[in-house]
Design goal:
The complex is a heterotetramer of chains A (733), B (187), C (267) and D (206). Chain A has 733 residues and is α/β, with parallel strands linked by helices. In chain A, 30% of the residues lie in helices and 17% in strands. Chain A is built from 26 helices and 28 strands. In chain A, the strands form six sheets. Chain A has an eight-stranded mixed beta sheet with strand order 6-5-18-17-16-7-8-15, sandwiched between helices. In chain A, strands 23-27-24-26-25-28 form a six-stranded mixed barrel. In chain A, helix 9 packs parallel to helix 14. Chain A starts with a helix and ends with a strand. In chain A, 62% of the residues are buried. Chain B is an alpha+beta fold. Chain B has a single domain, classed as Alpha-Beta Plaits (2-Layer Sandwich). Chain C folds into two domains: 128 residues, no CATH class; 137 residues. Helix content of chain C is 77%, strand content 0%. In chain C, helix 1 runs antiparallel to helix 2, helix 3 packs antiparallel against helix 4 and helix 6 packs antiparallel against helix 8. Classes of the chains: A alpha/beta (733), B alpha+beta (187), C mainly alpha (267), D mainly alpha (206). Chains in contact: A-B, A-D, B-C, B-D. The interface between A and D is large, with 63 and 61 residues. Strand 11 of chain A pairs parallel with strand 11 of chain B.
Chain lengths: 733, 187, 267, 206
């Protein structure tokens, strides 16, 4: 090796060589080896292309074509073999070269001396594994189980191989898990009660719709590729209706926009249903053949609901409700897309059930181009091989212990017998994204060890003891599907991992190896393996048949992306619902089991406390997914700070002008940020978009209380958070 | 007859996502501050009812390019097909083109110390490919039109915030959004 | 402030051209000692040369500046560079003829250089008379550029001549006419901005909002007043008065030009 | 070559070597006593002691105590390693393109230099080739071979000497520790000398 030869020559030539003087050998450094003789075949100018998959928590889950020159990514674009994304990426996807090559990336495993101190020292992977393993074994010894170890991992990377982190945890014993989802729980439960499970139709079928209602969804910002199909449909004469409390980017494109009072969507749906019943516009045959409990529901509506009441409740004029009901009921097929934001209320689940009922009574469910589309998981039939190894023999406890991801801080603090002493965080940034971040920090304070695996220095990393550098999609192998479209995307390794980054799978293998070295048999996770072999093990016969592929390798060769068989792309086409009765259940005993009313009834919305009369909504932002992307320089060059959207009328009352700094406050906390005056928000509401901004030490969640939604336990184990029932006051700062 | 290529930007379709801008930047590996295409927010009351509207603009490949007349080194040429090309080899970075352009299209690249602007990806067009922004717009809101052949229905040469087209006769045309029906809550 | 090289270039080049024309004209009409003439013409060459050098700093690639004459067919900037370059060249030659004391050659080269200088200022103004920047796009730009020359040039030459006791012409009258014209142009300019396109009005708003606007006006008025009062009072104008007026007006013009660039609002 | 000339060459070599060790992170765990050796070593180099920046560096190093040694690795990591946004990136590309992104054209140009000499970075593609540590190692390789003088001159001229000042400025701006500050001065002082040396060589060539 050349480095050594240099060093040797130094010794020979340099009489007072510093190297010799201080006894510096190669071993004393963690630095990369340095320069070595060049491989004979090496030249610059080699161009290659690879298929990648965007693994972020996004409807669109794009198939990517990556150009690599001299081992460096030079261009990233959409894979044209995919008819949903059509070779195009969203604005965030286009920034991937920066995500990979940003000098801000976390490069090496590091340990912080004093949590939050900013005093970091570099350690080797070996040292990191040793510190973590020793802690795990110590905890196991002290508490008799691994339950004091808590995993908080979620949606930062949905590559199937990333479930290795959960697998690694299962392989050391029973642990505590952050369970649930901040995303869709109430709505998913609602659809679960009504139809057995949430199941959406292919978004490419928007083209077949005669009428589209986007109900609290903003695909222009959150699913640009779906927006393409919606615009195409519009151009062909489909009417687009958007129902939303805010004039979103999508609402700006609607043929008709209806501004609704937030959290009253259920009342609107029920009002429409009453009109449809009154005018005999419902599909009698459909409900007779495919549902149970219709007569009870019919009676409930006729007894309790009037259109006048709905108008009063929702702020939508009666005439508009009636026209909307008539148009929707007579269009064939009519398509509803329910956004996740709509159900982030204390009555979110009930509202989704009411909207489902609207689609059911008009016979729109099970029809191509129709349906009540929310989320789906039909293509997620992987083996989840990485999670299959089980607890080692002699590990204490009987099962994993669950804490609610959505009230993580408080539940970690409350956990007892045994308490939680160690946290492993992957694919998440809880301090930025969870409600009540100050409580989450308190929970961190209680830990003996916090390990975070991440790409960037987030608020959570700042508050960790050990940080492990992870790979971008381009540096590892994987496979991805979507919870919205029907494609499966291959992820190839396009470049070598930068610095010392490792994938979650490699980390799991490395930790297992160390654990087994220190205490043989203490971890059942395999200690080695080729990622390509791992990914092949994810595919079973059913999923191969569904996508008409033989293997991961086959999918790669076929263009990196494949669409599921047509037969599953129309939700409930066979009308075999997965409810206990096998029918659509207006009357759900399952709902009763979970403590809810059996029928899709109206549930009151959360009322604003007197001191905090202004609703502060925090919808998704177009330059970010949760805490990802927005901090990249290309996007910072477009918008470099968060802002608060305020209606000019409210601003006038509060003496606030454009760009004034505004203080938002409630009992949970406060923050200050610039105002943007806009009529896009109603006068009783302010909007701060969700995201993690570079150089900004707060997020929209500072004032969000861990207020639970009405549903979530049935499908997701835990209720979600009513993110949009966040009430504040504002003043000029 | 020679071509008259120009962009046709459909504001009705544009969702202001900036993918055109960023894909162009990525393809040409431009610095963060540099944008050959730029997405700009339009006034809220553009169509009467409040909406979020954006317009995406790049070089307008004018019939009478002010940049071309301002440039002291003759770095600008207007091709037969109407594309205004800036030859960076010749540029001495005097920035006069940027001053003269009513649309502030040529921008200074502080690294190369030369001006930089959209070339309608003529190298791609010449081999039968579309410009990056046209190909990568998720909504297909940008097109290339030969205005000598086609006069698009609804195409207009001016949008609010856009300079008077009589100065340089830009070839870009826009399709303005149609107002939708809105039911807004009264306060 | 990145237009600072242009501010310095335009003011100094206009000063040099104005001074040159004054010197040449007086030399035609009466006699100037060889030593004095040489001194003035050399100092003008130096100022003219500094202007060229400073202007290069505005370029991304100063060493490629020679290419700037390539587009003379259409580009006013090319024309400016060409005419001004030729002017500086001829003014050197002109100085050479002072050394040689060749009066008739001086007359001829001076005449040609005068024409080139006028063309250079004309081209210079035309560069900025562009629709893209409404505050610039009027004949006032042309007048202002020439008036800078008329105010600064004669005073510059005057200072030398008065100190050496050779001032044979009433330069004060020329400058006072210049002051009056400049006042009129200024008023026309401001009202033009006020009543012009929104961007022009914005330029005025920006300019007035800056302290240097008032310093510029103040120095202008004081300089004008000193010259006018001393002229009306038939008081003998001294080198000191000329120098003070020159310095004040140089500051005034420099600040005016700085604002010209800094407050330019693009369409 | 004269003895004097040889000495100078030896000094250059040793200073590059020290900086190389520094950027490799080899010096993070030295004791106060070992630092005294290093300081004495530096004081013996006329190139440094006679240079303003070099003298400043030596003065600072003489103030080292246990406390400064304790915070030294943390500050070193904040500046050059992470996990935070690097306050003084050690990668050439961070200074040569405005967005500071690594693995860009500049990196490739550096790589080409290595290739020309039959070298490459170990595990190429994982660590940007233009990390200061590699550039210094490359210089150490060239400096001992008389026939590589021209390559060395070109490399210094096209690369290291083009960006070290910006790098030093960032360290000076963000350093919270005498050690890192001293090394910024050291790097600046030494490379200023190198710049002058190159100019002299060029003049000699003319």
């Amino acid at each position: 090796m050349l480095k050594e030869s240099i060093t040797r020559r130094n010794f020979i030539k340099g009489s007072a060589s510093l190297t010799a003087l201080l006894g510096l050998g190669a071993a004393s450094s963690q630095a990369p080896k340095g320069l070595v003789p060049k491989a004979a075949a090496k030249t610059n100018g080699k161009v290659q292309q690879f298929y990648n998959a965007c693994p972020r928590n996004c409807y669109d889950t794009c198939s990517i074509l990556t150009t690599v020159e001299d081992g460096r990514i030079t261009f990233i674009t959409g894979n044209e073999n995919n008819t949903y994304t059509k070779g195009r990426l969203c604005v965030k996807g286009n920034t991937y070269p920066r995500v990979v090559y940003s000098p801000d990336r976390i490069k090496y495993p590091m340990r912080q001396k004093g949590r939050g101190s900013g005093n970091w020292e570099r350690i080797s992977w070996g040292e990191a594994y040793t510190i973590i393993s020793k802690k795990i074994l110590e905890i196991k010894k002290e508490y008799g189980s691994t339950l004091p170890i808590c995993l908080n991992k979620y949606s930062g990377n949905f590559n199937i191989l990333n479930y290795a982190t959960e697998g690694m945890m299962s392989s050391i014993g029973y642990t505590t898990r952050a369970q649930g989802t901040p995303c869709d729980p109430a709505g998913s439960d609602a659809q679960g009660f009504d139809m057995g499970v949430a199941y959406n139709s292919d978004p490419e079928h928007f083209l077949d719709a005669d009428y589209i209602i986007l109900w609290g969804a903003n695909p222009a910002w959150t699913s640009a590729h779906s927006m393409y199909f919606i615009e195409q449909a519009k151009e062909r004469g489909t009417k687009l209706v958007v129902i939303d409390p805010l004039i979103t980017q999508t609402a700006s494109k609607a043929d008709e926009y209806i501004q609704i009072k937030a959290s009253t969507d259920g009342a609107l749906a029920l009002g429409m249903i009453r009109y449809i019943f009154d005018h005999q516009l419902f599909d009698k045959n459909w409900v007779a053949e495919n549902s149970i409990g219709f007569s009870e529901f019919f009676a409930y509506v006729n007894k309790n609901i009037t259109v006048e009441w709905a108008a009063e409740k929702t702020g939508v004029p009666q005439a508009v409700i009636e026209r909307l009901a008539r148009e929707y009921a007579t269009a064939k097929p009519a398509n509803i897309w329910i956004g996740f934001g709509m159900q982030r209320h204390v009555n979110g689940g009930a509202m989704v059930r009411a909207i489902d009922a609207l689609a059911a009574i008009t016979g729109n469910i099970g029809k191509r181009g129709g349906g009540v589309n929310y989320i789906g998981g039909e293509t997620w039939g992987f083996n989840y091989h990485t999670m299959s190894f089980g607890a080692p023999e002699g590990s204490g406890g009987e099962a994993d212990r669950m804490v609610n991801m959505n009230n993580f801080g408080a539940q970690v603090l409350a956990a007892d017998e045994p308490p939680i002493k160690m946290m492993w965080i992957a694919c998440r940034n809880p301090i930025a994204q969870d409600p009540e971040p100050n409580v989450v920090k308190k929970a961190f304070d209680q830990m003996d060890l916090v390990v975070t695996a991440d790409l960037y220095m987030t608020q959570t990393v700042e508050y960790s003891d050990i940080v492990l550098p992870v790979t971008t999609p381009f540096e590892s192998v994987g496979i991805n599907v979507s919870y919205w479209h029907y494609w499966m995307n291959v992820n190839e390794q396009a470049i070598k991992p930068l610095y010392e980054a490792k994938s979650d799978l490699e980390i799991a293998m490395g930790l297992s190896k160390k654990l087994n070295e220190l205490a043989p048999g203490s971890c059942t996770f395999p200690t080695s393996g080729n990622p390509k072999e791992w990914v092949e093990k994810e595919l079973n016969d059913e999923i191969k048949e569904l996508f008409n592929i033989e293997s991961w390798e086959d999918l790669r060769k076929k263009g990196g992306t494949a669409k599921a068989n047509e037969k599953i792309t129309v939700a409930w086409e066979d009308l075999k619902f997965r409810t206990p009765s096998g029918k659509y259940e207006f009357y759900s005993k399952k709902a009763v089991e979970y403590g809810h009313h059996p029928l899709p009834v109206f549930t009151e919305e959360y009322k604003a406390p007197k001191e905090y009369p202004i609703r502060c909504m925090s919808p998704h932002w177009k330059f970010g997914i949760h805490s990802q992307f927005q901090h990249q320089d290309w996007l910072m060059a477009i918008q470099d700070h968060p802002y608060l959207e305020i209606n000019p009328e409210l601003a006038r009352k509060k003496g606030i002008q454009n760009n004034d700094i505004v203080k938002i406050i409630n009992e949970t906390g406060y923050m200050t940020l610039p105002a943007k005056l806009t009529k896009m928000v109603p006068p009783d509401t302010v909007v701060m978009y969700e995201g993690w901004w570079k150089g900004v030490n707060y997020t929209e969640n500072i004032t969000v209380k861990a207020l639970a939604e009405d549903m979530g336990e049935y499908q997701k184990g835990q209720r979600g958070i009513a993110f949009h029932d966040n009430f504040v006051n504002i003043e000029k700062a | 007859m020679a071509k008259k290529l120009g962009f046709l930007v459909n504001i009705e379709r544009c969702i202001g996502c900036h993918a055109c801008e960023i894909s162009c930047k990525s393809f040409y590996q431009l610095e963060p501050e540099m944008r050959r295409r730029r997405v700009t927010e339009l006034p809220e009351d553009l169509v009467g009812t409040p909406v979020r509207a954006f317009v995406s603009t790049a070089c307008n490949h004018c019939d009478e390019p002010a940049c071309k007349n301002a440039c002291p080194v003759g770095a600008y040429t207007k091709r037969e097909d109407g594309i205004v090309v800036h030859n960076q080899e010749l540029c001495i970075g005097c920035q006069m083109c940027g001053k003269a352009c009513p649309y502030k299209v040529p921008v200074y690249n502080p690294v190369k110390r030369k001006m930089d602007k959209c070339s309608m990806c003529y190298e791609r067009l010449d081999v039968g490919q579309l410009p990056i922004c046209v190909e990568k717009c998720p909504l297909e809101a940008i097109q290339i039109v030969d205005y000598n052949e086609v006069q698009p229905e609804n195409g207009v040469s001016i949008v609010p915030t856009f300079a008077d087209p009589s100065i340089t006769h830009p070839t870009t045309q826009f399709i303005l959004p149609k107002p939708g029906k809105q039911t807004r809550r009264s306060s | 402030m990145h237009d600072m090289p242009l501010v310095i270039f335009t003011v100094l080049s206009q000063l040099a051209i104005g001074g040159f024309v004054t010197l040449w004209w007086i030399d035609q009409k009466s006699t100037i000692q060889r030593k004095t003439g040489l001194l003035i013409s050399l100092s003008l060459v130096v100022i003219g040369g500094i202007a060229v050098l400073v202007s290069l700093f505005h370029l991304g690639h100063p060493f490629a500046a020679y290419r700037a004459i390539l587009n003379i067919k259409v580009s006013w900037l090319s024309r400016e560079v060409t005419f001004y370059g030729a002017f500086v060249g001829l003014s050197m030659l002109y100085s050479w003829f002072w050394i040689k004391d060749a009066a008739s050659w001086r007359g001829m080269t001076g005449a040609v250089a005068t024409i080139l200088g006028i063309l250079a200022i004309f081209s210079s103004a035309k560069i900025y008379m562009i629709p893209a920047i409404p505050a610039w796009n009027s004949m006032t730009t042309m007048f202002m550029f020439f008036l800078t020359s008329i105010l600064l040039g004669p005073l510059f030459v005057g200072v030398f001549l008065i100190i050496r006791g050779e001032l044979s012409m009433n330069l004060t009258a020329v400058v006072i006419v210049g002051f009056i014209a400049a006042t009129v142009v200024m008023l026309v300019y401001f009202s033009g901005l006020q009543g012009g396109l929104p961007q022009a009005a914005e330029s005025l708003r920006l300019a007035v909002g800056q302290l240097i606007f008032w310093v510029r006006l103040f120095t202008f008025i004081i300089a004008f007043a000193i010259l006018a009062i001393t002229a009306i009072g038939k008081q003998k104008q001294t080198g000191t008065i000329y120098t003070v007026v020159f310095v004040l007006i140089l500051i005034s013009e420099f600040l005016a030009r700085l604002q010209f660039y800094e407050t330019a609002v693009h369409l | 070559m004269t003895e004097n000339c040889n000495d100078k060459q030896q000094d250059r070599f040793e200073l590059y070597q020290l900086l190389w060790h520094y950027y490799r992170g080899d010096l993070l765990n030295l004791t106060v006593r070992e630092w005294a050796t290093v300081t004495a070593f530096l004081s013996s180099k006329p190139t440094l002691s006679q240079n303003d920046w070099g003298a400043k560096a030596i003065n600072l190093l003489e103030t080292i105590n246990n406390q400064s040694l304790e915070t030294f690795p943390f500050d070193f990591n904040r500046l050059f390693v992470g996990p935070n946004k690097l306050l003084a990136s050690p990668y050439e590309s961070s200074y040569r393109n405005t967005e500071g992104t690594v693995m860009q054209t500049e990196t490739l140009k550096v790589r080409n230099f290595y290739y020309h000499e039959g070298l490459q970075v170990d595990r190429e593609g994982q660590h940007p080739d233009d990390h200061l540590q590699f550039e210094l190692e490359f210089i150490l390789h060239l400096i001992q071979l008389a026939e590589k003088k021209e390559i060395l001159r070109l490399f210094l001229h096209n690369h290291l000497l083009k960006w070290y000042e910006a790098h030093c400025r960032r360290i000076e701006e963000h350093s919270q520790n005498v050690m890192t500050l001293a090394f910024a001065y050291l790097l600046r002082g030494f490379l200023q000398k190198e710049t002058m040396l190159l100019k002299e060589e060029e003049a000699a060539l003319c």
